[in-house]
Amino acid sequence: MFGSRVLGLVAAAGSVFAQTTVYEAESGALNGVTVGTSVTGFTGKGYVEGFDTATDSITFNISSMTSQLYNLSIVYNGPNGDKYTTVVLNGVGGSQISLPATTTWTTVPAGQVLLNAGANTIQIQNNWGWYLIDAIKVTPAAKRGAHKVTTTPINKNANSDAKALLKYLGSIYGKKMLSGQHDQTSLDWVTQNVGKTPAVLGVDFMDYTESRKSRGASSTDTDKAIAFAKKGGIVTFQWHWGAPVGLYDTAEHPWYKGFYTDATDFNIETALKDTTNANYTLLIKDIDTIAVELKKLQSAGVPVIWRPLHEAEGAWFWWGAKGPEPAKKLWNILYDRLTNHHKLNNLIWQWNSVAAAWYPGNAKVDMVSADTYSQGDHGPISATYNNLLALTNDTKIIAAAEIGSVMEPDQLKAYQADWVYFAVWSGEYISGGSWNSLDLLKRVYASDYVLTLDEIQGWKKTKTARSWEA
Ligand SMILES: *[C@@H]1O[C@H](CO)[C@@H](O)[C@H](O)[C@H]1NC(C)=O
Ligand SMILES: *[C@@H]1O[C@H](CO)[C@@H](O)[C@H](O)[C@H]1NC(C)=O
Ligand SMILES: *[C@@H]1O[C@H](CO)[C@@H](O)[C@H](O)[C@H]1NC(C)=O
Ligand SMILES: *[C@@H]1O[C@H](CO)[C@@H](O)[C@H](O)[C@H]1NC(C)=O
């Protein structure tokens, strides 16, 4: 292969040999960029620089003997600070890769690429620009071994409903995926238009929150969840938790956006400093209000995939606004209050941030998940999946808790992105046509890989759950 160089044989699991191939940047097709040699330490004849315009790119021709999954990495130098690049495979989609500041030639993982048999292209596109590219490397990805996930809840007193749910999820994990939809109205839209009912309903404790109820909000999501569970479905709750006090309540930042960091001056760090201040007390009061709802679910025999403090690492919600430590502290307070004080034993505790600094730890979490929105991209979100896999050392089941565009089942299987369920966000995301076409939704819902409500009937009974086990 022109412009490539074989690095040698690297032993991989199962005595398969993975051969890494290096493609020198200066040998790619250069568009708007040039070859430099002044920063020493590069390999080959130089490196590529001058990424300063949106259309600047390097295109590599890559051939593969078979259709196969490869690990991709980029060798770069970042003397101008933290930057991003975009990697595009065969001209479609594109994933953003972080290139942290460095003044030495550094290799960063850039996700995985499913190459076709024969010719392929990998393109490095400008994005933020102002970095130097020396080479890219592709290595055939080793097939991952069996998952090592725990299917025993962290709560020693978990009831039989919660235990059955986690066990059921474990039994399908890596073999099947549950379809899911947020919001009852959107779920009904799926039933009516796609012709299948999702297995998972996503609902919200948002309008049971004190600061919203006192301003006229109300909700029936608890009743909807119980009704859906009676039909044999699985429910997951998040909580858009409006801050208890400090809402700006202005035209620009209305009270109903009070879960957003920029709509309140509520300070989680100060509130959690001690257990006697007024704001700590208000947080506990809010948790107690939600406990009332969770108890109704527990009494009705409904286990809940419980996803509080979602997207904490994004910092756009007040619970993530002061960094990882207060968020993790609040997670522990929530767990203690709901489990030990309120004796709620029907909960599967699902964490929803990916970064290691935010992770409450394997002893505090039953499942992990991420929310990703990439309009019209029906890829497997495998880089995020692999980050979550690494986060827990593959000890926790992983879910795509909120997505915009559904994933292609074939891609999920090829990339071994074993999300146990997906849950599309409500409204235009599912029914607007631009995030998901109706044809694609029909194909995804009809896939053998994707389970719908009719296909999971009786999941609580061990016997049925076992039918998926290897
Ligand atoms: C890549 O392949 C295309 C199509 O065969 C060819 O036109 C182009 O010159 C190749 N680019 C490089 C850098 O080899
Ligand atoms: C490829 O990437 C995956 C996911 O990040 C990783 O687990 C694996 O060890 C890497 N290497 C090979 C040879 O598969
Ligand atoms: C509680 O939070 C509100 C809103 O941010 C703030 O004005 C008030 O000073 C806080 N109270 C205490 C005791 O920290
Ligand atoms: C995963 O394993 C690594 C290495 O053994 C360890 O450092 C890390 O703490 C583990 N992560 C978790 C979440 O237990």
UniProtKB/TrEMBL annotation:
Keywords: Glycosidase, Hydrolase, Signal. GO terms for biological process: substituted mannan metabolic process. This is Mannan endo-1,4-beta-mannosidase-like protein. Residues 1-18 form the signal peptide. It holds the Pfam family Glyco_hydro_26. Residues 160-454 form the GH26 domain. Belongs to the glycosyl hydrolase 26 family. The keyword Amino-acid biosynthesis does not apply. GO terms for molecular function: carbohydrate binding; mannan endo-1,4-beta-mannosidase activity. Gene3D superfamilies: Galactose-binding domain-like, Glycosidases. Residues 21-139 form the CBM6 domain. It comes from the Eukaryota. The active site is at E311, E402. The lineage of its organism: Eukaryota, Fungi, Dikarya, Ascomycota, Pezizomycotina. The keyword Cell wall biogenesis/degradation does not apply.
